[in-house]
Specification:
The structure holds two protein chains of two kinds. Chain A is 62% helix and 0% strand. Chain A is elongated and about 60 Å long. Chain A is mostly helical. Classes of the chains: A mainly alpha, B mainly alpha.
């Protein structure tokens, strides 16, 4: 069973949200809790992928939610509330990163890898099946987390919002303030880079111990 | 249409998202049947998407939601107290000036909250038979290659899946989601 209330991105949901927003604007502030509840996990994911620290990500989400509450009157009905909320969270997280100058090293790192051009896979290990118990193993989850953390920021952001939090290409683009073409390009590279990183270790026998050779990361 | 490996690598992501033209899709599938390397790339990329989709890959800290709502409630209370203070001052002034408009304090009453999100999406047909995994977050059509945890699947209707909090797979349900805009 999924945790909490999952987002239902659909017309009925949007009507329901518009009703809640109107009630909040009319002074029923407590309805704001209902409004944000389906998106808490996505907000945390968006903050965490940028800040890479649980405590900072949690604090960032709290600030972002308070800002959204403060500025709810500025929300335009033609926009999607979840995207607006994620945008605020992404902006808050980026502002915090800038304050910590953490993005300086990141931008150097990202500049060294051209976003344009074809990405050539570097590993062609056959990896057809994922046994259902694979993610039961903490070790496997740690390897996946390690591989994800090794991606450049611009790739990690897109991958987490699109593939882990199930935003559409358009929603991901709006949330991050980039074009849909950039989302697609970054997503392709993120997926292929992760496959290159993980296929050698995970494509073989899942029952054997897995490990990445030192220096095996291709970027 | 005959395509080269480089084109498969360039389009693999769009292909897995169901975002390529039918002609290109057939060309990729024909190429992959003959090319082991590209088959490995397509299968491996699909596995990556499937693995990271699992909610255990990003676990929200214990108590995250409770702390968030505590802070939000505290903020709402503060703003309400500010509002209350303003109202008291306004009411006092009003009393001094003649006592009118005191009825405005009725704005402080809090109506009961409405029910939550138990409703169908209006996009995926409500009576469509779908499959879910107890550990997953997504519902799929039977046979979707992005289905999780294949040993713990159950079959339910789409409206039941949505009621239980599952979201539609953005790949196998793409035609319904696209049609609804």
């Amino acid at each position: 069973m999924p945790i909490g209330v999952e987002p239902l991105d659909n017309p009925a949901q949007q009507n329901y949200e518009q009703g809640l927003i109107q009630r909040i604007r009319d002074g029923e502030h407590e309805a704001f809790s209902q409004l944000i509840r389906p998106y808490e996990r996505r907000l945390y994911a968006a903050a965490y992928v940028i800040l890479r620290n649980e405590t900072d990500a949690e604090d960032c989400v709290q600030e972002a939610v308070l800002k959204a509450f403060k500025y709810i009157r500025q929300f335009r009905a033609e926009a999607k509330f979840s995207t607006w909320l994620i945008q605020i969270t992404v902006n808050e997280a980026r502002m915090r990163r800038r304050k910590e100058h953490a993005d300086i090293m990141e931008s150097i790192e990202n500049n060294n890898k051209g976003e344009e051009g074809t990405y050539t896979p570097r590993d062609f290990a056959d990896w057809r099946e994922i046994p259902s118990e694979a993610l039961e193993r903490q070790e496997v989850r740690e390897k996946l987390g390690e591989a994800l953390r090794s991606l450049g920021q611009i790739y990690r952001e897109v991958f987490v919002l699109r593939d882990m939090e199930q935003l559409s290409i358009e929603e991901t683009a709006k949330a991050l303030g980039i074009s849909t073409a950039s989302v697609k390009t970054r997503l392709l590279r993120a997926r292929l880079m992760l496959r290159d990183l993980l296929a050698p270790g995970l494509g073989g026998s899942w029952s054997s111990r897995i490990s990445f050779a030192k220096g095996a990361k291709p970027w | 249409m005959v395509i080269k490996c480089e084109e498969v690598w360039r389009e693999v992501s769009n292909y897995l998202d169901g975002d390529v033209e039918p002609g290109l899709r057939l060309a990729i599938e024909a190429h992959v049947r003959e090319c082991k390397q590209c088959a490995a790339v397509v299968d491996g990329t699909r596995n990556i998407i499937q693995l990271y989709e699992d909610e255990r890959m990003l676990e929200v800290p214990v108590g995250f939601s409770r702390r968030l709502h505590q802070r939000l409630d505290a903020n709402i209370s503060t703003s309400r107290r500010g509002f209350l203070g303003w109202m008291v001052a306004a009411a006092t002034s009003a009393l001094v000036l003649g006592g009118f408009e005191l009825a405005r304090s009725s704005a402080l009453t809090i109506p009961a909250l409405r029910s939550q999100l138990a409703q169908t999406s209006g996009r995926v047909p409500a009576d469509m038979v779908v499959i879910v995994s107890d550990r997953g977050r997504i519902f799929h059509v039977a046979g979707c290659p992005f289905t999780h945890d294949k040993s713990h699947l159950r079959t339910i209707l789409a409206r039941e899946a949505e009621r239980e909090g599952y979201a539609p797979c953005v790949r196998c349900m793409k035609k319904y989601l696209d049609a609804a805009g």
